[in-house]
Amino acid sequence: MKSILVTGFEPFQQDVINPSWEIAQALEGWQLGNCTVQAIRLPVSFDDSVAYLKQALKTWQPDYVICLGVAANRNAISIERIAINVNDAIIPDNLGKQPIDQSIDPHGAAAFFSTLPIKAIFQKLRQENIAVELSNTAGTYVCNHVFYHLMSMIQHTQVKGGFIHVPALPEMLDPNSVIRGINLDTQIKAIRFSIETILNDDSDVKVAAGAIS
Ligand code: PCA
Questions:
Q1: In b/e form, how buried is each residue of 131-155, taking b as 16+ CB within 10 angstroms?
Q2: pTM
Q3: Does the Cβ of 69 fall within 6 Å of ligand 1?
Q4: Residue 27 and residue 156: Cα distance in Å, rounded?
Q5: Could you report the per-residue pLDDT of 85-117, keeping only the tens digit for each?
Q6: Which of 65, 88, 98, 167 could form an S-S bond across to 161 if both were Cys, CB 3.0 to 4.6 Å?
Q7: CA 86 to CA 96: how far, in whole Å?
């Protein structure tokens, strides 16, 4: 048996729901071939999120890890390419901590790359007509922090991992907003397709999905 750990976050700022946890929760126990999904909810805290993740890796010993978080200003499922070694929080986390221009790990690498087949996932979601983009920044808040620690923790192991940002749910947004969000069913489908892609083929594909600026 293999396992895939899917993490989601608790709500933060004024929101009462975080789609990343709704997705992870919906996928808990889902089996695909010989692989089972384990889900955990991470606190939106620079310190505790990493402690929870570390504990989950120890407990579940997953073969794959997908960390999910919401990026409410985005309109598409955002496959993250890179985690950078900086915290620069424009709002405090749920425990009041607000690091500004601090290294995540003063002795660590400047950045880590996702080891998930990001282009294959991108291509699969595009084929399924789900709004998707490749992203070169996971921000500098708790999501990037968790992504960086994840990649650091699994770097010398066989475990493959990465981060996907999801948009807000339409009901979380101001009706006048230019951002439309994506409904929960489609978001769950998108992460199911992502898992399918990861399990089908560990290797990535060469399709252009970068950015000029
Ligand atoms: N999104 C935030 C933190 C938790 C979440 O779901 C982020 O993008 O950093």
A1: bbbbbeebbbbbbbbbbbbbbbbbe
A2: 0.97
A3: yes
A4: 27
A5: 999 999 999 999 999 999 999 999 999 999 999
A6: 65
A7: 18
